[in-house]
Specification:
single chain, 549 residues, mainly alpha, Serine Threonine Protein Phosphatase 5, Tetratricopeptide repeat, 6-stranded mixed beta sheet, 28 helices, globular, DNA-binding
DNA sequence: GTAGGGTTAG
């Protein structure tokens, strides 16, 4: 066996790994071993990479052991790539501290080592450790900035991602398409349309046509900031639509309540010869749910398996159950749960519980809540929903008991928070929150708004207030919900005809929904609310969800 | 010929 020969083996293995043929790569490695072909650092690096890519961490340990036992004596230089992949191996198998130990002990490190360690921290959600490492990096490159910015975004720290992105530009680093994708996802999280549009201008100069990631993220940013038309504009101008682009656009239509557009786009996707995946069906089922298209939902649910061999997962079932419940077809939903090929878990029960609320079915709600209390005792949503169901039936004592149970178990309700962007600043409000510097003015505006919408026929739905208190106090509580504060602020600050875009971390409350419909008529304003589930476009006294959400 | 990355759904 001469030297040239093992080069060919190595090339074959790395070719397999790069094409995703993990098993073939490993088979070839075994053949090399049994034929006595000399193994070098390239062999081990490729094979270890195959194990890590395939999630075969146990095997990667044996390969590593083999390298130590039977491999060549690595110099610190030739050990470098092997150690680099081992950093990734340790972090991907959840052992970041071992990765760090190896990293610290390495006699020689290069930019790959630093970036691998950085990604390790980011994947483990140890963002502060990642940041500390990042600031200590001696060999900073574009990839490190990208990992750090998207790390912030994926851990709910989008503001810091945007700040880091600006710092990156200030230091003269040119962002790649992936980096743009990451920060644009951050703008989408924040609902910061202004920042998103500035990035759009930058990425146009850069040419997002060449990067599907940037284009897809741009599209999603517009959709999540409430401007579905601009999202569609991006969609039609992109040169290479991939399945992510189609999924994103279908999802955008669905979230905004345009179920039929979503379905039409899905059909167009099929005509273009793009293969739908499980996410496509998830988005199309969501689109049906948001519009109450029960028959269509059923159809797609059956269609995905029959025509595309995609077995519906728990998430697909949960969507269909949600859809059936909202349409009042509770018993069908229960039958569907019975027929599932796996045991129902909490997401299935959550869908059924939400459905029993829509239909005011207290007995069912109790039964389902009981299962959820056992399965996920710390999920705040169960307590809130159950308490809501009792309150709306006027059973305040039982509602209070549920909340006591919640307190006793130390479960905290996520506080409602709404935010709005005004002249490039994001202003956030909590319910009944006096923290904002201009809150007095906002409250006076809300009183005026209330007087006006009451004249136009708005009646507060005090059933939606959880606490037992005087009727007038309940009305007051409703009028100070976070979404109302944000809208009041918007009416006060934004130009006269400008649409008001508000974001909320929870679902919009039924009373606020009714109030905002009247507001949109009273002030001739378009009001767009993104809640945790979907968008509501209020215009001329109506909402795009058609009171169905 | 080697090692490190992103976008959709929730």
């Amino acid at each position: 066996m001469n030297g040239k020969f093992d080069v060919v083996w190595n090339a074959m293995i790395s070719g397999y790994v790069q094409s995703g043929f993990i098993a073939d790569a490993l088979a070839l490695f075994r053949e090399m071993v049994s034929n006595g072909i000399p193994l070098d650092e390239f062999t081990y690096t490729s094979v270890l990479s195959a194990c890590v890519n395939g999630g075969l961490f146990g095997l990667s340990k044996s390969v590593h052991a083999h390298a130590i036992r039977a491999g060549p004596n690595f110099s610190s230089y030739s050990a470098l790539p092997v150690n680099n992949i081992l950093i990734t191996m340790y972090s991907k198998s959840g052992k970041v501290e071992l990765a760090r130990k190896l990293f610290d002990d390495m006699p020689l490190k290069d930019h790959v080592s630093w970036n691998a360690m950085l990604s390790g921290y980011v994947d483990a959600k140890l963002i502060d450790d990642a940041l500390a490492l990042f600031h200590g990096m001696s060999c900073m490159n574009q990839m490190a900035w990208m990992v750090m910015t998207s790390g912030f975004v994926n851990n709910g720290r989008a503001e810091e991602a945007l700040a880091l992105f600006n710092m990156m530009r200030g230091k003269g680093f040119e962002p790649c398409g992936f980096t743009y994708a990451g920060v644009m996802a951050g703008c989408a999280d924040l609902g910061s349309l202004t920042a998103g549009m500035q990035l759009h201008a930058q990425v146009t100069r850069y040419g997002y046509e060449s990067s599907n990631s940037a284009g897809n993220a741009l599209l999603t940013m517009y959709a999540k900031c409430g401007v579905v038309e601009d999202a569609h504009q991006v969609f039609v101008t992109m040169c290479n639509l991939d399945s992510v682009s189609w999924n994103a656009m279908i999802s955008a239509f669905g979230q905004h309540g345009y179920g039929l557009d979503a379905i039409n786009l899905f059909n167009e996707m099929l005509l273009e010869g793009i293969y739908p995946d499980r996410i496509t069906f998830l988005t199309i089922l969501s689109a049906c749910t948001h519009c109450g298209l029960v028959d269509e939902g059923y159809h797609y649910f059956n269609y995905m398996e029959r025509h595309y061999g995609i077995t519906p997962g728990e998430d697909h079932y949960a969507r269909l159950i949600d859809l059936l419940c909202r349409a009042g077809r509770i018993s069908e939903a229960q039958n569907l749960i019975q027929s599932m090929p796996f045991e129902p878990t909490s997401i299935i029960w959550e869908a059924l519980l939400a459905g029993s609320r829509v239909n005011g079915d207290v007995d069912l709600a109790l039964e389902v809540a009981d299962r959820l209390f056992k399965a996920v005792p710390h999920l705040d949503g169960t307590y809130i929903l159950l308490s809501n169901i009792y309150s709306s039936e006027g059973r305040y004592v039982e509602a209070a008991n549920v909340r006591k149970l919640m307190r006793d178990r130390g479960v905290k309700k996520e506080p409602g928070c709404s935010w709005i962007e005004v002249s490039n600043n994001v202003h956030s409000f909590l319910a009944d929150d006096m923290g904002h510097p201009e809150i007095d003015m906002v409250c006076r505006v809300l009183d005026l708004i209330n007087a006006k919408i009451t004249k136009l026929g708005y009646k507060p739905n005090t059933k939606l207030v959880l606490h037992a208190m005087e009727e007038r106090d309940k009305e007051y509580v409703l009028s100070r919900h976070s979404e109302r504060l944000a809208i009041g602020f918007g009416l006060l600050k934004l130009p006269v005809k400008a649409p008001i875009r508000v974001l909320k971390n929870l679902r919009i409350c039924g009373d606020c929904h009714a109030a905002i419909m009247v507001m949109s008529r009273a002030f001739g304003r378009e009001i767009i609310v993104r809640d945790v589930k979907r968008f509501h476009h209020f215009k001329d006294g109506e909402c795009s969800c058609g009171n169905y959400w």
